[in-house]
Amino acid sequence: MLAAFVDFRDVVxxxxxHWLASxxxxxxxxxxxxxxxxxxxxxxxxxxxxxxxxxxxxxLCPLGILQDIVIRLxxxxxxxxxxxxxxxxxxxxxxxILWVVILASLTGAGSAALVLLDPYSHFGRIASGIFRPLATxxxxxxxxxxxxxxxxGGFRYDVVWPSMAALVFPxxxxxxxxxxxxxxxxxxxxxxCPVGTLLGWLAKRAAFRLRIDSQACEKCAACxxxxxxxxxxxxxxxxxxxxxxxxxxxxxxxEKGAIDFRWSWGGGASRKKEPALRGQVAVGSEGVCRRDxxxxxxxxxxxxxxxxxxxxxxLAVSHPAASRRVIRPGIAPPxxxxxxxxxxxxxxxxxxxxxxxxxxLQPALLEFGLLGFMKPHMNYPAAFCDFDCxxxxxxxxxxxxxxxxxxxxxxxxxxxxxxxxxECIVVRNGTDCAACSEHCPTKAVSTVPYGSxxxxxxxxxSLCIGCGACEYACPVKAITxxxxxxxxxxxxxxxxxxxxxxxxxxxxx
Amino acid sequence: MYTRRNFLKAGAVVTxxxxxxxxxRLFATVSTTGGGGATGPVLAAVRDGSRREMVDAAxxxxxxxxxxVKPGQTVVVKPNIGWDVAPDLCANTHPDVVGRVxxxxxxxxxxxxxxxxxxxxxxxxAYANSGIEEAATRAGATLVNGKDQSLYRETQIPxxxxxxxxxxxxxxxxxxxxxxxxxxxxxxxxxxxxxMKNLMGVIWDRGFYHKNDLHQCIADxxxxxxPDLNILDAYSPMVRNGPRGRGADxxxxxxxxxxxxxxxxxxxxxxxxxxxxxxxxxxxALASAMGLGVMDLQKVDIRRIKMT
Lengths: 509, 308
Hints:
The complex is a heterodimer. Chain A is mainly α. Chain A is about 45% helix and about 10% strand. In chain A, α4 (about 40-50) packs across α11, α6 packs across α9 and α6 crosses α10 (about 165-185). In chain B, strands 1, 2, 3, 4, 5, 8, 9, 10, 11, 12 and 13 form an 11-stranded mixed beta sheet that branches. In chain B, strands 6-7 form a two-stranded antiparallel ribbon. Chain B has helices at about 5-20, 25, 50-60, 95-105, 125-130, 130-140, 170-175, 195-200, 205-210, 215-220, 265-275, 280-290; strands spanning about 30-35, 40-45, 75-80, 110-115, 140-145, 150-155, 165-170, 175-180, 185, 190-195, 230-240, 255-260, 300-305. At the A-B interface, α21 of A face α5, β5, α9, α10 and α11 of B.
C-alpha cells in the first residue's frame, strides 16, 4: 500500500495500487453505496468483524499499521512498559463522530466528512504528500552517491511536494496520529476513527471474542503491556471487544493461558458473565448515546464547519497566491463525469495524486468549495494532463474517477480554454511564439498566418478537451482553462492523409 | 578442374569481400556538387535506405565517426524526445537513428555517451514511449534527466542579440563532442523544426525564447557553441499539425537523412525537403546573417547518396 503511494518511479503496476486501495473499508463502502463497484471488501470486512472482531484494523488498515510501527518503536526504545493501563472508553465521542459521518452522508456531505476522518484517506495523504517526496529525496541522494563513486546512479527524480497550504492538513494528522500512538497506543482508532467505531459496533458481540478466564488469571498484567488498545480491564476481568483491534498480541503474552479466543454466541462457556458485560455496554452505548449523539453530532458539525472555515480563511490570508487560487474554480480530472458526482464520491485519498505522472493532479484547498477540500484538482498552469494517460482513473478505488480507455479519454472534455488575444506575444511583440499550439494534442489550437511572416493562435473549441497544455505552455499566461460542470465529449478530428510536399526529384537541393 | 573445394573457396572470398565493402557502397551512387569546392561545408544527403543504413552511409560520406569522436572523448547525443508519443508517429527522433548514432560513437572510442532532452511532455513517459530510452541504453549510452534543474548551469552568451545568458544542461556544457540528432517536422510557430530548433531542448527556460523573439534566441544560442555534427531524421517528416502531430496521417514518407557539421546548411536543405525556401524560416536566415553557418546551398559540398 505504502509502495503504491510512494512509487515515484511508477514501477508499481496500476492494478496493484487500485486493488490494494479497493480492499480498504471506506473506498469499497463508497463504491458499494454509489453503485460504482461491487464493494465486496467492505461486506467481507463487516462479516469478519461480526465473527472475529476488528481484524481489519490490525491487518489491512494502513493508518492502523502505521500506528503499530510507532507503538513497536516506542517499545523498542524501552520507554515506559507500564503506562498502557485499561482506560474507560470514550464512547460518546466515538459515536458522535461516526454519527457525524452518517448524517453528513445523508445530507450529501459524506465524502467531505470522510476526507476529514477516513483512516485510509488520511494515510494516503500522508504517504503521498509527505513520505513520497522524502523517499524521492533519499533515492536521489543514493543515486548521487553511486555517481560520486563512479557508477551509473540512474535518474534523479523530481521531488514533488504539495503546496505548503495543502501540506498542513496531512502534517497535522501525521503528528496527531503518531503522537497519540506513542502516547496511548490505538487511542486514535478508538476515539476518532469512524471506521474503528463502526467495526467496533459490529465486533462488540462478535461470534468469537477474547475472554479472560478469571480462575486462571493471576493479574500479572503481562497482557496489559502487550495491548495497544487499552481495552483489557483486569480488575473487572473483561475485555472491551469493541475497542480490541484484533492484533492478538495478548494471547502469547499470557503465560497462564488465561486469555482465550472462543465462540461466544448463544451458550458460550462464560454465559454467566454475559449479563453484566451486556448491561454495562448497553448503558454505555445505547442509553447514554442515543440521547447524546444528536447533541454531540450537532456540536461536531458546527465544530467541523468552523475549523474548515477557519482553515480556509487562514489559507486565503497566509498564502499570497491563494487569493487568486481560491477564486479560480477547480477542474476535476477526466472520468469524474460531473462535478457533483466527483465531489460526492471522492474521499481525497490521493492515490491518483501519487499516480499522476505530470503532477497536474494536486489536492484542492477551496477550488471546489469547502466540500472539495483535499480532493484532487487539475493544477493548471503548473502542469498539464498527459494526453495518453489515464492513470488517475485506473487507480481510483471508489469510482470518483471512472477508468476510461484512451480513445474515450482523448475525447473527454473537462474544461475549455479561453484565449485573451490582446495579451498574446504574437500580437503584442510582433514575434513568433505558438507555444500553445505546439503543445495542443488535439489541434484544437493551431496557427494561422498573421502580419508579415508570423503565425497566430487559432482555435476550434469543439476539439478542445481542456487538458491545460496550452495554458501551461503560454509564456505570458494569456490562456485560462475553465471547468465544465458536466464533462462532455469533444469532436473527433478527421483529416485526409497528408501528401508529399516535394515533387522535385530525389534531392530538392 | 572445378571442384567443390574451389567452389567453397570462391564463395568464401566473395562473402568476405561483401562483408568488407558494405552493401550501400556496392549499390549506392555517390554524387557531389562542388559549388563551394573544398572550402565549403560538407552535407551528406541520403535517401531510400533504412534509418540505420542511412546513418551509416551519411557518416561514411563525412569521413566516418572517427572524424568527429576521438577515443576517450565524452559525447552528448541530443535527440528530439519532446513528446510522449510512439516512434511510428515521428514526433520524436526515431530510436533506430539514435541507437545507431550511439553505437557509432561507442565504436569510435567515446569514453561516455550521454542522451537527454528537456521534454515538453512528462519526461519519463517521453523517454520510455519514444523508444529512445531503450534503444540508446542498449547501444551503450547513459540517459540523464532533462527536467532536473540542478543539472543546468547559468551561462553567459556574450554574442547573443536577445539571449544574453541561459541555464544550459551540464551535459552540453561539459561534453567534448555534441551530436545533434533532430527529427524533421512542421512547426506551428517556426514553420519548421529541425537542427537549430532542436537545441531549444538543452536550455531550461524555453519560455524566455518565446517571450523574447523566438527565432533570434534560437540563432543566438549558436554563438555559444554549435554541435560538432548534426544528423537529421527525415524518414517520415510530419508535414502538418507539428510539432506534436495528431496522428500517422500527418506524416509523409520521404526516406531521407541528412548529416552535416554545419547546422545552418543542414537546416537549409531540410527546408527544401519540406518544399520551403531556407529564407522562409527566419532563424535560418538570422543564423546565416550572423555568420553561424552557410544557408546558400550552392556553396555547400553536398554528397548525395541514393540507396536502393
